[in-house]
């Protein structure tokens, strides 16, 4: 008997084939939805990048204004801040990072300004310069200084982040609350709830190297979207090839003797 549309429909009603078809439709829908989601993430990322760049290029605001913004809605990320005060350079907190492929540390020190204590990220040092004595030849601000930097909210850890080691002054994520707990009692009560990352040229000396804030965020959402859409098309191709192979196989006549 030759292959007919009616026979194909009947074959398609078999439970095994029906399960395969439903699974293919569900998987295809999931793959397409993931691709669409990545395109939506791409639009969100572009808006975020534009917002960050606009804030980083805007005139610096006084610390009091940024503190008020934090109390209102905590939307202070990448706002430029200008403050005048004294850097407590003798107290350093070291936060692990990788800069241009080089492992090292962000050097954070308290900055006294207008009755507040701000944790100032002074910049990056490579591992050999982690010890302040290894860079004792570098100038350190003394007395009243003005510093401009970008406000950054405290960090968060995830399941792959190592545990911080306060007793060894080795921090692997920006746990501001725990860092503030290392300050004298009076300073703890006056501590700002966010970091300030010093802009390039804000502080003297080569090390720590300031101005290392990453303003360009990774944006691979388009390639991810194309990957999901490509997988969806591949799935359709495999399913179509299977249908064609069944149709051809079903149309073959068994050989007769004589």
UniProtKB/TrEMBL annotation:
PROSITE patterns referenced in this protein's UniProt entry, alphabetically: SURF1 (PS50895)
CDD domains: SURF1
Keyword line: Cell membrane, Membrane, Transmembrane, Transmembrane helix
Residue ranges crossing the lipid bilayer per the database entry: 17-37, 224-244
Subcellular location, record wording: Cell membrane; Membrane
Xref: Pfam families: SURF1
Membrane association type: Multi-pass membrane protein
Keyword Transmembrane helix appears in the UniProt entry: yes
InterPro entries, per the entry: Surf1/Shy1 (IPR002994), Surf1/Surf4 (IPR045214)
GO cellular component: plasma membrane
Protein origin, superkingdom: Bacteria
Protein family per UniProt: Belongs to the SURF1 family.
Name of the protein in its database record: SURF1-like protein
Organism: Dichotomicrobium thermohalophilum
Taxon lineage: Bacteria, Pseudomonadati, Pseudomonadota, Alphaproteobacteria, Hyphomicrobiales
